[in-house]
Amino acid sequence: MKLTKALLCATALCGASAVSAADLEVTHWWTSGGEAAAVSEFAKAFNSTEHTWIDGAIAGSGGTARPIIISRILGGDPMHATQLNHGRQAEELVEAGLMLDLTDVAAAGGWADVVNPSNLLESCTLDGKVYCVPVNIHSPQWLWLSHAAYEKAGVDVPSDWFEYVESAPALRDAGLIPLAMGQQSWQTSLAFGAIQVAIGGTDLYVDVLTNKNAEAAASPEMTAVFQAYADARSLSEGSNVQDWNQATNLVITGQAGAQLMGDWAQGEFQVANQVAGEDYTCLPGLGVNEIIATGGDAFYFPKQDDPAIEAAQKELAALMISPEMQVAFNLKKGSLPIRGDVDLSAANDCMKKGLAILAAGNILPDGVNAFSADTAGQIEDLMVEMWNDQSVTVEDAQARYTAIIANAD
Ligand code: GAL
After folding, report:
1. What is the pLDDT of residue 19?
2. Residue of 375, 355, 380 lying closest to 117 (CA atoms)
3. Which of the residues 105, 192, 206, 229 has the least number of beta carbons within 10 Å of its own beta carbon?
4. CA–CA distance, 377 with 209 (Å, rounded to integer)
5. Is residue 243 located within the same domain as residue 379?
6. Does some domain include residue 365?
């Protein structure tokens, strides 16, 4: 019996009925080197069953792929499985009855007992029914540092954001880009959010994003956040790349000293055969406030009117959350597993840092970001404008930010 079949039998799914082979089209936006290496672990394991993984990779970021995925499902041309982020991205599709109920799979696999943190399963659950399988934990709040760049600059690898900013002139003198940054707006927004958590601290972050406290937005503590963002803006001059993984490559090849990016960047270092702690250093919470968010990815299974397809969809969901797949996929993805009962002896230095933070419960509270899409859009526009226009001062930006928070909904 094939390994994966045995695995599925362990989840009491294989005994249900004879399994007829099915081709499942799976959509996702994992097209960088590291992302492709990770998703191939899912595909390889599924292809070792009677079924076939038809890869539906969509180029571009989540902001490009999500509208395509959602419009296909609403338009009656659904894929069989799709990646989306943890949270409420599929809420309307679930409420419209367009997504497969996985409650029996979740019960057979004991998901309620293994998924950690539990809010990842809660965000898959509506009216007591489970509609997605969480597959990883990603966090945006990381700084990635190139050992080769620091060796060339003749300075020690920084241990936090402040040392990093101080090291920038030496990087420039060595002809290097201090901070690699792609030009897509979500990347500069991610940078502001990471700086806000690290430099401003968790209480301030919650006060502004959850309580929508305009006084907090106007505080001297937030001025320090805007100053750090302005520093990052200056340090990225010369980083003329578009995609996040192209920016990561600048760090991998020693052309840039650092990148401020989520831990999915780690997948790129791995496919480049670089070793955490030897070739690069990762600083969760930018080395200042070791707090991480529990973002990341889950898979949903649009309903199909075909019992054989539905059985295969449920097998894939069970496979993705299995201990073996959680290790194989997350080690390649650079993310953390969504269950604690797995053998992560192969975890590298950065994954171990993330696991320690998770184990200590040093995570951002769930549902912190209470902004409407409109408010979030106004903030993203401000951050992009400030990043791309040196004439926007810290004072200007903070005043405009405070006005947005004062009217936030
Ligand atoms: C995020 C996703 C990650 C990573 C990143 C960059 O939305 O959760 O898995 O792929 O996009 O593409």
Report:
1. 59
2. 355
3. 206
4. 13
5. yes
6. no
Q: How far is the CA of 296 from the centre of ligand 1 (A)?
A: 7
Task: Kindly state whether residues 89 and 175 are assigned to the same domain.
Answer: no
Give the count of domains, the chain. 2
- By most ligand atoms within 8 Å of CB, the mutation choice from 84, 120, 138, 186 for ligand 1 is 138
Relative to the CA of 335, which ligand 1 atom is closest? 9
Task: Output the residue whose Cα is nearest ligand 1's atom 10.
Answer: 30
pTM over 0.85: yes
191-243 residue pLDDT tens:
999 999 999 999 999 999 999 999 999 999 999 999 999 999 999 999 999 99
How many angstroms separate the alpha carbon of residue 189 from the centre of ligand 1? 14
Dmax of the chain from CA atoms? 67
Nearest-CA neighbor of 163 among 231, 210, 209, 230? 231
Within 6 Å (CB) of ligand 1, which residues are found? Answer: 29-30, 35, 61-62, 85, 138, 244, 264, 296-297
46 part of a folded domain: yes
Q: Which of 280, 275, 284, 263 is CA-nearest to residue 149?
A: 280
